Amino acid sequence: MSKLPTYSGRLQPPTAVKRPPSDNGMDEAAVSPEKKSRTAGGRAIQPSKPSAGRGGLKRSFSVANVSAVGGQKDHSKNSLASSKFRSSTLSLTGRPSSVSSSVLANRVPTGKSKRPGWDLKGRLQDMEALLKSREVEQKEWMKKFEEYDTRIVTLESEKTHLSHDLVQTTTSYEANQEEIESLRKNLRKEQDERNSEKNNYENTIQSLTFSNSNLDRQIKSLDAEIAARQEEVAGLKFTVSELSSTQAGMEARLKSTESLLLERNQQNAEMAAQIEEQKRKIEELNEKLQQGEMMRRKLHNTVLELKGNIRVFCRVRPLLNEEIKNNGNSDVVHHINFIDEHTLEVGKGEVNTSSMSGLKSRGNNFTEFSYDRVFQPSATQSEVFEEISQLAQSALDGYNVCIFAYGQTGSGKTFTMEGVPNDDELEGMIPRTVKHIFKNMEELESKGWSYKVEASFLEIYNETIRDLLASPKEAKNLTYELKFQDNKKNEIYVTNLKRIPVENEGKVHTLLNMAQQQRAVAATNMNEQSSRSHSVFQLRLSGENAKTGDSCEGMLNLVDLAGSERLKESKSEGARLVETQNINKSLANLGNVIMAIGQKQSHIPYRNSKLTHLLQSSLGGNSKALMFVNISPVEACLNETQNSLRFATRVNQCHIGVASKQIKK
Description:
Blueprint: E1 15-18, H1 33-38, H2 53-71, H3 75-87, E2 89-92, H4 102-107, H5 120-307, E3 311-316, H6 321-326, E4 336-338, E5 343-347, E6 352-353, E7 360-361, E8 366-370, E9 373-375, H7 381-396, E10 400-407, H8 413-417, H9 429-445, E11 449-461, E12 464-467, E13 482-484, E14 492-494, E15 500-502, H10 505-518, E16 521-522, E17 530-531, E18 534-545, E19 551-560, H11 567-570, H12 575-598, H13 610-614, H14 616-620, E20 624-631, H15 638-652
Parallel strand pairs: 3-9, 3-20, 10-19, 10-20
Antiparallel strand pairs: 1-2, 4-5, 5-8, 6-7, 11-12, 11-15, 11-18, 13-14, 16-17, 18-19
Helix pairs in contact: 2-5, 7-9, 9-10
Keywords: ATP-binding, Coiled coil, Cytoplasm, Cytoskeleton, Microtubule, Motor protein, Nucleotide-binding
Family: Belongs to the TRAFAC class myosin-kinesin ATPase superfamily. Kinesin family. KIN-14 subfamily.
Domain Kinesin motor: 309-654
């Protein structure tokens, strides 16, 4: 950074020049403009060259003298003016600091007394003397002024040089300041970079210090681990030496074991061959067993057909959640005992459980019932259908088949026959039978058989037939009556009943869903969703064999009877009362028909109800019939259970004759 020059030796502070005293009483206001330019209130100014010249100054003083002569009254005024003049200063740079007033004072007459007013001559002489003195003084002042002018010119020149130097100095100073500012910025930038590097280095040092400490700890840990490993290695070496000796013994044993293993492998191969042979024999036996079971069922069906009786299957539904709670959170049915697949006992009595044997002891009031098949509450829909599949197959063979479900309300009849829609495991007998029939129809196609299938679905509600496949608008003006089919072989048909051709299983399911939506269902005191009508689903199957020329025609009737109710227990009123009366009446007529058939009466009262009239061909004609008797597991329904079982026993004893195959002509 450059050092600026100073000019303290060349510039001098301005000095004050005393003005001469004025005898004429003039104050500073009467000073000429030239003098005013040189002084401004006693402040130091830059002197300038007088503009009026020396002549002007002389005239100024002459006027002052004349004024003093004409107007002076006393000497004290002149003294006062002189003191004022002396007290005023002229600030000029480089001029003498003061002008001695003693010279001027010596030239002015002093000590004379004031002349009287009439002494004009004396006064004129005084004025002339004063004028001479003033002229001398003026000359001295002019000389001084010339010196001052010379000095001013010198100072002006010096000022010009100084101004030029000042400009150069200022320019240099500004350049130096810019350079200084740039250097400062660079310095700050450099300092910031150095600080950043310093911080980075410090962070690196801290990180390295931390890493170093971690490494130290790891080294110590590894040293300890190495020491432990060395001890372990020493132990392992000892163990290896022991194992080496042991290995020698084991190798000897291994050789003997390998020879033994070869023998065992040979034996295993022989055993495996024997096992495969046994498996093959077991599979053959299983196939024979299945064939034997199928043969047994066929023979059993043949025996039943030859006997000509109505087959009866008894099914007990499981307890519902609410019923389990009321049964002490137990699903055990105490009043029903399952003896085997064909027999059960029903009765009311105390049931005691022995803590030693777990066996139940019962009273003596249990009644035993035997049927063609008894299904416990754990039986599935698939297991139930397996028992009736051969019967359903008969419809394809040209037989009339009737399967109906009987029992009190809430005993599971509708579940058995229809099941739960869109659930393969819970499908009922009707959808499973349809699936079975269409599956067998496809298998029979390879043998030359082709079938036409027509479906109808009706219900008997309050002794009135309703078509469940017809819309209310279609059935509005139609009447449905039961008539014989051309008066031959007691075949009954319903007039105006809608029969819809079906080509596949899906079409049948669509019709079943349509019928379920139109069926009469209502809540009663005995059942929240009780069927209030008898429903009859019919499939008419017409088959022809193109290879052999054979033909057949079968009818499959799947009937879901309305549940019986005791008016005393159901407490039905209004429409429910009428429904209950008609249901009980039709079921009673069904019992009378079964009784008449069993007793070989000459007159069978089929026409006493629409239900028995519709089932006339199934009960007393050329048909294979099967009845499900559905039982409630609730002990409070014991009386209805016993009545249903007694009715089922009478039905099972009813002989309707041997069914014959219907040959289509």
